[in-house]
Write a structure and sequence with these properties.
With about 60 residues, the protein is an all-alpha fold. Helices cover about 80% and strands about 0% of the residues. GO terms for molecular function: structural constituent of ribosome.
Length: about 60
């Protein structure tokens, strides 16, 4: 997910995306623990996407003040 894609979304969409990414991260952690994880790079990718979404949410909340 690119930062430009994230910036174009509304706050509600970003919140939904954050919930979805956190669920995916949870599932990936369990897959890794049980040895079922095939794409290990996806863990890093999801973690960075979560950081991107949180950063943009914070920027948007700061801009509103």
């Amino acid at each position: 997910m690119k930062a430009a894609d994230v910036r174009s979304k509304s706050v509600d969409q970003l919140s939904d995306e954050l919930v979805k990414l956190k669920k995916e991260q949870f599932n990936l952690r369990f897959q890794a623990a049980t040895g079922q994880l095939e794409k290990t790079g996806r863990v890093t990718e999801v973690r960075r996407d979560i950081a991107r979404v949180k950063t943009i949410l914070r920027e948007k909340s700061q801009a509103g003040k």
